[in-house]
Amino acid sequence: MSDLTAKLASTSKVEMTQLVMPPDATGLGIAFGGRVMEWTDLAASMAAMRHARMPVVTACIDQLSFLAPIRVGQIVVLRARVNAVFGSSMEVEVNVVAEDPANGERRDCCEAFLTLVALGPSGTPAKAPILLPQTEEEEQRAREAVARRAARMARRRKA
């Protein structure tokens, strides 16, 4: 069973790196969007598991925006963090940056918001620990997550 003690937002942070290889890319040498999505989902899952200390599943990719291409040979840095907890579900934000290994230049390439659900021993949704934001930035991220969740729920009611 999970420890439901409230946890600091900062303890869920994950940084993951990948090197873009030819099998990860199109014939033009640009990373497949699906591969970047896979890495994004992995980073989000690790952040959610780190927070909940339970297995998690992806319930929703609320937003995934590709901002710039990522090329073969570049280093991809994915940073994930839990923004808010809603019972068993957690909103995780992932930012993806491409780094040129020759000169260290970095540029934002992708941003995403995912909802992951904590699972208990029986494989059913289980309550995740409360998230404690410490900084104004973390509090703002939590408020924005609440607004995104409300919009998501409103879309679901319309469907």
Report on this model:
Helices cover 27% and strands 36% of the residues. With 159 residues, the chain is an alpha+beta fold. The protein has a single domain, classed as Hotdog Thioesterase (Thiol Ester Dehydrase, Chain A), CATH 3.10.129. The protein has a 5-stranded antiparallel beta sheet with strand order 2-4-5-6-3. The protein has a two-stranded parallel ribbon with strand order 1-7. A hairpin with a 2-residue loop joins β4 and β5. It is globular.
List the helices and strands and how they pair.
Blueprint: E1 7-8, E2 14-19, H1 33-52, E3 56-66, E4 75-86, E5 89-99, E6 106-118, E7 131-132, H2 136-158
Parallel strand pairs: 1-7
Antiparallel strand pairs: 2-4, 3-6, 4-5, 5-6
Query: SSE string, helix = H, strand = E?
Result: EEHEEEEEH
Give the tally of β-strands: 7
Helix content: 25-40%
Number of helices: 2
Mass-distribution shape: globular
CATH topology: Thiol Ester Dehydrase, Chain A
Distance from N terminus to C terminus (CA atoms, Å) equals 35 Å
